[in-house]
Design a protein that fits this description.
The structure is a homodimer.
Chain A (H helix, E strand, L loop, with lengths): L8 E6 L3 H12 L3 E8 L14 E4 L12 E4 L6 H9 L5 E2 L8 H14 L3 E3 L8 H12 L3 E7 L2 E2 L1 H8 L4 E10 L1 H8 L8 H4 E9 L5 H9 L9 E6 L2 H7 L5 E11 L5 E11 L2 H21 L4 E3 L14 H7 L2
Parallel strand pairs in A: 1-2, 1-4, 2-3, 4-5, 5-6, 6-14, 10-11
Antiparallel strand pairs in A: 7-12, 8-9, 9-10, 12-13
Helix pairs in contact in A: 1-10, 2-3
Chain lengths: ~325, ~325
């Protein structure tokens, strides 16, 4: 891989929500990238971005700009946007997404791979931290310790899906849900006890709920705690707070988590080892965006090398993520 | 990359000390590998290995076996063995080493790269955990958080170099030294305080010393504590213990450590993030060996793909480390 310095990678963003804005901020931190366009499904005039001199376009005009963009970053949701968008835009662009519906990754991969290959593009799917950095750590640790156990914990952080679920409960005006890993479970894993942990033993769910005036609080609490899939299998704590308090103390989007592998080595498996990777993130979308942009750099380089098709974080040699040359990396980071 | 199942990778080991034995144990844990020969500079008849049916040869016979080995694992030391051995044996074999003299990696790389390319082999240098897994984590975290600080802590673990230094002190019969990261420093890093830490603030050194009969204990303690490079810049604790106690409680080779990157994201760097990777290892050589064998798998695959030259962990896509296929990895670990 040759590192060409001085030529900036031209980036387009499709979708300007929390993730799209995070991508814009990440580009600002990387000297070898520049934002050239933001595309939106909204009225472009209604979208104000942070980067001076860069225009917002309607998504209807996106194909016209196919020769002006090295990598298009797709910032839609995994439920309905990305399954359509990633294969569609891989026809015209090198693309990257953060598709995170784990069970549907194989299907998404196949679809995107076909289109990317047919059109001579590189696509990278499921970049972020889980899938993404957490997946990498699972893979490395499994390769290094073939006899062992994997554990993933999430939090402390805001679950968008669980917060949405709370807000759908009758009598709830607004709400936020935090997923919290349980300390005793973390400790048992760290101590190589190889625990078999139930859903309830791994995570706690803490809800901050703003009730509508006159709502039946006991009923709200019971409805939340017994909600199947979302809360019923967990110990759930419900706090009722005011709208002001929610805004003041719970408007951030922090997240994080832990990936462990514990395993044994030795002729008779007599020695224990713990590999632990953890993230503590003030902003889930901004960190996700930062991971995406490191992989966008790799996508651009692979395209220049003539590679085509769909890739995941598993397929990318780490050196492709860094703006530094191989010599610099060996000298300073090895 | 194609994953061919059923064909075992044939491994040779050069050097049968702690690391060589660790390699042998790691091979036993990986179904797609088999040990075919151990080479030694000692009298082969004096070396007893664990694997039934495998022979120990003199290193003088190694070249004769060049067509029977897919990857030769070099288990010598970094000071004098590997600078000679890795370029020499890259003439005849695909090789892998754990060269860990950080400052001399660029020079070692160039020498090995030249020979490997001239002879159509793949060589991978500096596999292990530092350099190795720690380096990977530094690279990934730097690529993801370009604005931030790096911290590496080692321990709690046995430093072979410092233990050797203790044993050279007059009046010392035997001894072990533990490198211990200082909790308050770890906490300051985790809290995003971005501390500037002196050598003394990062690690503590704890020594367990068996004195010779009638030795001057005060003098031993003072000599150790004031030893330049090894101890003078640290807070050092010296315990005098009996030979029996040393054997009973300090005969293991545990190690480990922490790699952090703390950084900011957001338009004005307003959000903090902490990436933490840590290892807690009962056996330093066995874990190092486990990392080496995952990378040996990659070396073998790259060779089959026609790749030549010297590589480091930075150049290897993670999927090459796993015996699983791309489909399996995407389905189960992404």
């Amino acid at each position: 891989m040759e590192v060409v310095k001085g030529v900036k990678m031209k980036v387009g963003i499709l979708g300007y929500g929390n993730l799209g804005k995070g991508i814009e901020c990440a580009i600002k931190q990387n000297d070898d990238m520049e934002l050239v366009a933001v595309f939106t499904r909204r009225n472009p005039e209604s979208v104000k971005i942070l980067t001076e001199g860069v225009k917002v376009y309607s998504v209807d005009d996106i194909v016209k700009m196919k020769d002006e963009i090295d990598v298009l970053v797709l910032c839609g949701g995994s439920a309905t946007d990305l399954p359509e968008q990633t294969p569609e835009y891989a026809k015209y662009f090198n693309v990257i997404d953060s598709f995170d519906t784990h069970a549907k990754i194989p299907e998404h991969f196949e679809k995107v791979d076909k289109v990317a290959k047919e059109n001579g593009h590189v696509a990278l799917i499921s970049a972020g931290w889980d899938p993404g950095m957490f997946s990498l750590n699972r893979l490395y640790a499994n390769a290094v310790l073939p006899q062992g156990n994997d554990y993933t914990f999430w939090g402390k952080g805001v679950s968008q899906g669980h917060s949405d679920a709370i807000r759908r409960v009758e009598g709830v005006k607004d709400g936020k849900q935090y997923t919290i890993p349980i300390d005793s479970a973390l400790e048992a894993v760290r101590n190589c006890e190889n625990p078999e942990l139930s859903t309830r033993q791994k995570h706690l769910r803490e809800c901050f709920v703003v009730p509508e005036e006159g709502a039946d609080l006991a009923k709200i609490e019971e409805t939340i705690k017994n909600m199947p899939n979302y809360f019923a299998d967990y110990d759930t704590i419900v706090h009722f707070i005011s709208e002001e308090e929610l805004k003041a103390n719970h408007s951030g989007i922090p997240h994080g988590g832990f990936v462990f592998r514990t395993g044994v080595t030795g002729w008779n498996g007599e020695n224990n080892h713990v590999i632990e990777y953890s993230l503590k993130l003030d902003s889930n979308p901004e960190f996700t965006a930062s991971v995406i942009m490191a992989y966008a750099r790799a996508v651009n380089r692979l395209h220049k090398e003539g590679v085509t098709g769909c890739k995941t974080v598993f397929d990318i040699a780490p050196a492709y993520l860094s703006p530094k040359s191989g010599e610099e990396l060996r000298q300073h980071l090895l």
